[in-house]
Amino acid sequence: MIGAAPGGAPILVVGSVAYDTVRTPHGEARERLGGSASHFSAAAALFAPVRLVAVVGEDFAEEDLATLRERGVDLAGLERRPGRTFRWAGAYGEDPNEARTLRTELNVFADFDPRLPEPWRHTPVVFLANIDPDLQRRVLEQVERPKLVAADTMDFWIRAKARALERALQGVDVLLINEGEIRQLTGTRHLLDAARAAQALGPRTVVVKRGEYGALVASGEDVFALPAFPVPRVVDPTGAGDAFAGGFLGYLARQIARDAALDLRCAAVAGTVVASFQVEDFSLDRLRRLTWEELRERLEAYRRLTSWESLEELA
Amino acid sequence: MIGAAPGGAPILVVGSVAYDTVRTPHGEARERLGGSASHFSAAAALFAPVRLVAVVGEDFAEEDLATLRERGVDLAGLERRPGRTFRWAGAYGEDPNEARTLRTELNVFADFDPRLPEPWRHTPVVFLANIDPDLQRRVLEQVERPKLVAADTMDFWIRAKARALERALQGVDVLLINEGEIRQLTGTRHLLDAARAAQALGPRTVVVKRGEYGALVASGEDVFALPAFPVPRVVDPTGAGDAFAGGFLGYLARQIARDAALDLRCAAVAGTVVASFQVEDFSLDRLRRLTWEELRERLEAYRRLTSWESLEELA
Fold first, then answer.
1. Out of B224, B227, B265, whose CB is closest to A225?
2. Contacts of residue A308 in chain B, CB cutoff 8 Å?
3. B9: which chain A residues are within 8 Å (Cβ-Cβ)?
4. Is the CA virtual torsion B20, B24, B30, B32 positive or negative?
5. Sorting pLDDT into bands at 50, 70 and 90, what band is A96?
6. Three-state SS for B45?
7. A164 touches chain B (CB under 8 A)
8. Whole-prediction pTM value?
9. Per-residue pLDDT tens over the stretch A165-215
10. Quick one: CA torsion of A226, A231, A233, A237, rounded to 10 degrees?
11. Nearest CA distance, B81 vs chain A (angstrom)
């Protein structure tokens, strides 16, 4: 578990808390803590206090509450309802960028109607994880003048609720989205054009997550590209995108707490490095035991991986 | 055309000179100058004198000779034989990483038996473009103590002549290879593991070309990852890998000329930037009219695209 106290501005996250069953070439994990909001929380809590709004069923285990709580995640917004917790089952082949969904049981998540505890209405940083865009908008309506709103989405909502998604995006500062999904959202294959088209829908900043190929950040006119950190073994890619979002927003939350200018590039590096830990084990297992020392070491390794000197003799 | 005189050590390239017919979403080019050695030469000649060993048929046009000559490519090793020049026809869909071969006519290339002009036997830098690995080895046998030998290969040779390829690789310092092909060569999906496995075949340095996803350089223990430069329009991806190799080796040839330590990272940046120009037009059209001013500007743009400050508050 992490040693340092997080120094960032509070982050509110709304999304799914689930029990996942995942099969990968490295093994299988059955009925383990998962869901976009869980993965995001475990990552963001490295950097800032996290407030989780989600719903679980009666079957949700005390030890899983403890896992989140120990990471410093505030569970005052975690509703427990009659019925079973959301379940997802999926499998990965050799390509970690491609998940095959085997089963989805919405269970209590089907009627999720996120309500913020009153004191949370003033949370400065908001992450709308991948849920129904109408819910994303309803959450935003409950937050008063947040400093930074980020959102994720997925192919299902792009297909099924395009209009609602476009409405939701109007209130979003940062859209984090997969490479395949931004192409689907914008109908544009060229990634920079797609990012520009997505910016035109509202978000000033668009972060394209490319899995093992890294990420691209378009913000205003600025563009930043960075490779992924190649870990020796991708045990389970599930949650990598949410962990990226957690590291990214967590880093920005620290800058917001200090009233510093937002450095989106360093935030993307933080997201990249945190995501590289996420995929090293199933469920939240790797982020749970991650130390600041390991995080710092890998940031340094990432700098070595990506740094180069000026090409002086050509300048 | 480029302005500055190239200051690098001479580079010998052996490969194909062809007439390509290419269809992409941006148009079609019929019977235009192509082939791995042509693309490589046009790129490498930006940085160093290039010596081309290849074969063409009686139909090869004087203006195409002129194109290469004007770029400073020495054609003393370009054999002209009875028959037609090698032809390739291919098409790209929306994914620039995937070429579909429509037709291959080896023609005079079928009996290509590369012979180096006597004075070229002492060329310090050698690039064995994607040809039969037995020919690659026969070329190497004709060069005396080169300082740097690089080679490319492709799926066809990996399948058809695996043994010969492994023998050829024993004399190679730098293997440049596509992502899909290194997986095929090594039977390993994980890219770092694949690079390590390829290094074990001989080359101290392995450069994995990932198309629009950039490149990975493994050299000894060191690893460097870099993203591609996202150009506004990929008109024709043909030759991007060869142009990368040309920029990469051209940059190293300049360092060899100055007896400087080889900076593989900057060389990979040079390759990346040169390849980004290559894809902006058909045939050699973009590299032909490329100026040093444009090259310098894009190197600066690439630095802006990829640079980030230390994450100080986490260190």
1. B227
2. 224, 226, 263, 265-266, 268-269
3. none
4. negative
5. confident
6. coil
7. no
8. 0.93
9. 999 999 999 999 999 999 999 999 999 999 999 999 999 999 999 999 999
10. -40
11. 39
User: Which H helix or E strand runs over B137?
Assistant: helix B133-142
- The backbone torsions φ and ψ at residue A162, rounded to the nearest 5 degrees and listed phi first, read -60, -45
Q: How many CB pairs under 8 A join A and B?
A: 114
Biggest alpha carbon–alpha carbon distance for chain A? 69
Residue A56's DSSP bridge partners are: A80
The number of C-alpha atoms within 13 Å of B265 and in the hemisphere containing its C-beta is 16
Q: Does residue A307 sit at the B interface (CB-CB below 8 Å)?
A: yes
pLDDT at site A97: 84
Percent of chain A residues topping a pLDDT of 90: 92
pLDDT band of residue B98 (cuts 50, 70, 90) is confident
The pair of structure tokens assigned to B36 is 């791995």
Sheet strands (E) in A57-111: 73-80, 86-92, 99-105
Average of per-residue pLDDT values in chain A: 95
Q: Which ipTM was obtained for this model? A: 0.90
| Contact present, B194 and B215 (Cβ < 8 Å) | no
Which amino acid would we find at residue B1? Answer: M
Instruction: Give the Cα separation of A243 and A280 in Å (integer).
Output: 12
Both tokens of A8, joined, read 């960032």
pLDDT bin (cut points 50, 70, 90) of residue A229 is very high
- Note the helical H segments in chain A: 36-44, 62-70, 133-142, 155-160, 162-169, 179-186, 191-199, 240-257, 264-278, 285-288, 292-306
Return the closest-CA partner of residue A172 out of A206, A195, A142, A202: A202
Q: Please answer yes or no on whether B234 and A190 come within 8 Å at the CB atom.
A: yes
Residue B240, SS3? helix
Say yes or no: A299 contacts chain B, CB-CB below 8 A: yes
Residues from chain B that touch A232, judged by Cβ atoms under 8 A, are: 190, 192-193
CA distances from A229 to A36, A180, A214, A278 (A): 21, 20, 8, 12
Q: Which residue has the tokens 């093992």?
A: A212
Residues A214, A275: Cα–Cα separation, whole Å: 10
Distance in angstroms (rounded) separating the CA atoms of residues B41 and B75: 11
* Whether A139 contacts chain B with CB within 8 A: no
Check if the beta carbon of residue A44 is closer than 8 Å to that of residue A11: yes
Spatial distance between the Cα atoms of B152 and B172, rounded to a whole number of angstroms: 10
Q: Is B301 on the interface with A (CB under 8 A)?
A: no
pLDDT band at A258 (very low <50, low <70, confident <90, very high): very high
Q: Does B189 touch chain A (CB under 8 A)?
A: yes
Q: Residue B260's CB: how many other CB atoms inside 10 A?
A: 11
- Chain A residues in contact with B306 by the CB 8 A cut-off are 224-226, 306
Strand B174-178 to B148-152 pairing: parallel
Which H or E run includes B53?
A: strand B50-56
CA–CA dist A167, A177 (Å, integer): 16
CA-to-CA distance for B271 and B243, rounded, in angstroms? 7
B39 touches chain A (CB under 8 A): no
pLDDT of residue A128: 98
- pLDDT confidence of residue A310: 74
